C-alpha cells in the first residue's frame, strides 16, 4: 500500500502546479457545499427511534413545550393596587421597548374578555354541561330554590354593583351559565388565584403573575440575550421606583447561562491549551508553520464529511457535529505520527514504508467503529457515525499525501534522544516493575468494579445552574403553585376531530382520578373544546332535559316568584328564549375566536397530524397513574424528567450493543490487516484492559456515565486503538529488523497524549458540569490507554516475540502451539523454518518460496554430513540456510549475502542466533575449514573471482543451484558431477 502513496508523492512533486490547483478546488468546493448544509438543533435527534419513539417524535414536533417566562411582582404585605400598577408599567414598557422579542404576554384579563367568555358560554351552554350538572340544575328548579335565587337576584340589583350584575341576572336568573363557566377553571392547574384590576392576583394579595411567550426558542441565544438584557433593565428600573419588586424566571435563563458559561470556559481553557500546544509543537519540530500543518488534514476531513452529508441529506444534527468536532482529535494523531517519524528519518521512502500501514489501519478500524453507530436507530448518532468515519478516513489520506510535501525536516546534527520528549519516549516503561504492578493491580480491581459504574439519566445535572437563577426559580414556582411535578398528556390523531375525541375521553379519566385523589389537579380543554360527535351528544342531552313541560313549569315558577318582588313577566324573556333555543355544533375556529381562552396553548393543528395537550399536577410522581392514562390509544404521556431518563436509558442499552458491534468489527478489520489471530488479540486486548481500568477508576472516584461522556468514550476507544496499533507495528518492526524503533513510535504517541490532554483535559478547569464530565472521563481514559500500551502491551510483545527470538525460538502463535510434529514436519521442518518469518511483512513471499523449493532443499540437505563447514552464497531472506541448519544441526553454516535488506531480514530470525549459522555481508578472511560451497545464484564478479581462488584449495563439494552459472571451470579443477537433477548440480572433488 505504501508504494501507491510513494508514487503519488513523486507525481505531485513533479506536478506541483496541478497539485496546488486540485487542492484549491477541493478547499473551495468543500467549503461551499459544507456552508450550505442545514443544522438541526434538536436534542431529541439523539433519541433511539422505534414505533413508540416515532409517534413521540411526531408529537414533540407538533406540540409546543417551550418554557414561558414567569414574572412575579411581589410585595411583603397586602398591596394589590401597587402590584397591579407595577404590572401596568411593566407590560407597557415591554410592549414599547421589546416587541420584537415577545410573542405574547398573558396574565391580564380585561373586563371585556370576561364578558366575551361569559357570552360565549351562554350562547353554547349545552356544550359546557355534563350529567352531574343536570342534577344540580334539577335542584335549582325546585320552587324553594327558585324563590331563593330570585330574592338573591333582586338584592344584587339593588346593591351598588347592580349596574354590572344586571347584564347577567336577566339573562340567567338561576345561574345555570355559572355551572358551565366552572369548566373553564380546568384550563388552569394553579389554585389560589383571583382576578383583581384585570390581573392574576394570588389569594394572599401579595403577588401578581405575568407570563411571557418569547418569540425565539431557547437555542437562539443571541436574540434571547438581547431580550433578557432589556427585560432585566426594565425590571431593575421599576424596582428602584416602587415599593414592590419584580423578578422573573424561565428555561431561557438556564439556556443563556449555559451558553455563556460554555463560551467562557472554552475560551479560557482552549486559549491556554492552544498557547502551550503552539509553543510545544514549534519547539519540538523547530518549524513555525507546524501547528497549521497539523490541523490541515483534520479540517479537510471535516469538510469532506459535511459535504457528503449535504449531498445525501441536506441537513445534519448540530449535536453530532459538536461531538464529532471533539472526536476529530483522533485525526490529529495521523499528522503527528508522520511528522514525528519524518523528523527522526528524513528518507521519504522509509517514511511511507513505516507509517502507511499503521495509519491506514488506525483510520479504517476507527471508521468501522464509528460506522457501527448506524445500527443505532438515532438520527443524530447516525450523522455522527458518518461524519466521524468519513473525517478520519479523509484525514488519514491527506496526512499521508500532504505532510511529506510541506514538512522538510533538517538533517539531525545531534544524537537522537537529546530532545526532552525523545528522552521521555526512550524510557523502557515495560521494564519498570512498579508500573507493571500498578497496571496489573488496577486491572484486577477494575474486574470487580467495572460493571457497577452508574449511568446518570438526569440531564439537569449537566446544566450550569447559577445560584441566583435557582433562587428565582424556587421562589417564583412556589408562588405560581408549580412546585408539584407536572406531566404532559398529549392526545393526537390524523385530524383535529380525532385528537379532540381522544382528549374528551382523557378528560373523563382525569376527572375520575381527581375525584379519587390520585392526581392533585389537572388542566385540560376536554370539558370545553369538544369533538363534533361529543357536541351532538351534549346538545341531545340538553334537548332531552328541557322538555316543553319543564320549560313551561320553570317559566311559570319564575314569573310567580319574581312578581312578588316587582319584576315584570317579560323580565326574563332572554332566559326563556335560551331554554327554547335550537343549539348547533361549533367549529374549533369558533372556540379560538375567544382570545381569553388561550386555546393555542393547548392545540396544534397541522395537515395530517393534530395534538391536544393536557397537564397533570402530581405532588409525587406516580408511574402507575401515568401508565394507566397511557393505556388509551391516541394518548402519550410526556414527563420531562422521566422522558429524558427513558430516552437516555434506551440510549445506554443501544451503546452496550454498539460496543459489541464495534469490537467485533474492529477485530475483523485487524484480522484482515494482520492475518493473525494473536496479533489482532494483542492489539485489541489493551482496549479491553483500558476500558476495565477506566470504569474501575470512575467508580472509585464516584464518577457516573451520562449522555455526553458515554459518547465521548468512543473517543477514548479510538485513541486507545491508535496507540495499540502503533505499539504493535513498532514491536513488529523491531522483531523483523532488530532496530529499536519503539522510542520513535512512543514519541508520536506522547505528542498525541499531550495535545489531547491540553485540548480536552484542560476542560477540567471549566465550571460547566457537562464540560467537566467530558474532560474527567477523557483524561482518565487517555492516561489509562497510554499506560496500558506502553507497559502491558509492550511487555507482552517482548515476552512473546522479542525475547523468544533471542532464545532462538519463533514468536508465539496459536498455530505453532497447536501444530503436531508429525512425520511430514520432521521431514520438511516447515513449521520450524517458517516460524522464523511469521508476523513479518515478507512472510507470504518466504512461505511461497519455501513451499516451491522444499523438495530441492531436502535433497541438498542429504549431501551435507555431520561436522562439515558450509559456505552459502546469496540466499535471499535466509529460509534455505535456516532449513539446512535445522536439518543438519551438527554442521556449521556461513551465509554470505551482499544485499543489505535481505541480510537484515535473515539476520533477524530466531535461528540467526544459533551457534551453527552466521549471516554476513563480509566474506571470511580465511576459508580454511569450509569443505562445502553452495552457490544459489550467480555472484558478483569480485566475489566470483575470490570463490574461484579458494574453492580449489578447500572445497570437497560444490553445489550449484543456478543454471546461469558456468561450471566448466570446476571440471577443469578435477571435480566430477555426482548428482544432476531438479536444477541441482553437485560436484565432488575427485581423489
From TrEMBL:
GO terms for cellular component: plasma membrane. It is found in: Cell membrane. The chain crosses the membrane at residues 266-285, 292-312, 318-339, 359-378, 384-403, 434-455, 655-674, 681-701, 707-726, 747-766, 778-802. The keyword Chloroplast does not apply. InterPro entries: MMPL_dom, Mycobact_MmpL. Pfam families: MMPL. Residues 196-404, 653-789 form the Membrane transport protein MMPL domain. Gene3D superfamilies: Multidrug efflux transporter AcrB transmembrane domain. It comes from the Bacteria. It is a multi-pass membrane protein. Keywords: Cell membrane, Membrane, Transmembrane, Transmembrane helix. This is Membrane transport protein MMPL domain-containing protein. It comes from Salegentibacter echinorum. The lineage of its organism: Bacteria, Pseudomonadati, Bacteroidota, Flavobacteriia, Flavobacteriales.
